[in-house]
Amino acid sequence: MAGESQQVTHGGCLCGAVKYTVSGPLRPIWQCHCVRCQKTTGNFMAASGALATNIAVDQTGALTWFSPDDDANVAYAFCRHCGSSLFWRIVDQDPADEHWSICAGTLDDAVGLRTEAVWFTDHAAAHTHLDPGAEHLASTDL
């Protein structure tokens, strides 16, 4: 519709070598407590998300993608300078519908985003308090 403003959100890594802009809506926050996400982030993954085509990355060669193994079918992106976790994605997605998850802590302004779902609750670290207001899914539920 003419005159409508498009949602634009900015984010980036700790050192500023990777900056990104999302032009379009952001998905609510999903938390993942699987061991792989714990190892990637140092705690648990809290991520929003958007269509990959709506994400513009300015990174001067600092963005690095890592796939943990051939069977994982996921890739994680981080800044090779400061180590900030930035994105994760399913590797074998249809490019027309490819989504990237965006580490929520890297968003400059995430006003209005709320946790919607919590995954792998049975793998959550003992020190973690799970959000009681979100849908909880154990590994057997996924």
Task: Write down the Rg.
Answer: 15 Å
Helical region count? 1
> What is the mean pLDDT?
91
Report the biggest beta sheet as strand number plus sense, adding barrel if it closes.
8 strands, mixed
CATH architecture: Beta Complex
Strand order of the largest sheet: 6-7-8-9-4-3-10-11
Task: Measure the end-to-end span.
Answer: 38 Å
Strand content: 35-45%
Query: What class do helices, strands and sheet pairing give?
Result: mainly beta
What is the percent of helical residues? under 10%
Number of domains: 1
Description of the structure:
The protein has 142 residues and is mainly beta. The protein has a single domain (8-141), classed as Metal Binding Protein, Guanine Nucleotide Exchange Factor, Chain A (Beta Complex), CATH 2.170.150.70. Helices cover 5% and strands 38% of the residues. The relative contact order is 0.24. The strands form two sheets. It has an eight-stranded mixed sheet. Strands 1-2-5 form a three-stranded antiparallel sheet, with no helix packed on it. The protein has one helix at residues 35-41; strands spanning 8-12, 19-23, 29-32, 45-51, 55-58, 63-66, 74-79, 85-90, 99-103, 115-119, 135-137.
Annotate the secondary structure layout.
Blueprint lengths: L7 E5 L6 E5 L5 E4 L2 H7 L3 E7 L3 E4 L4 E4 L7 E6 L5 E6 L8 E5 L11 E5 L15 E3 L5
Parallel strand pairs: 3-10, 10-11
Antiparallel strand pairs: 1-2, 2-5, 3-4, 4-9, 6-7, 7-8, 8-9
What's a quick, concise take on this entry?
The chain is mainly beta and 142 residues long.
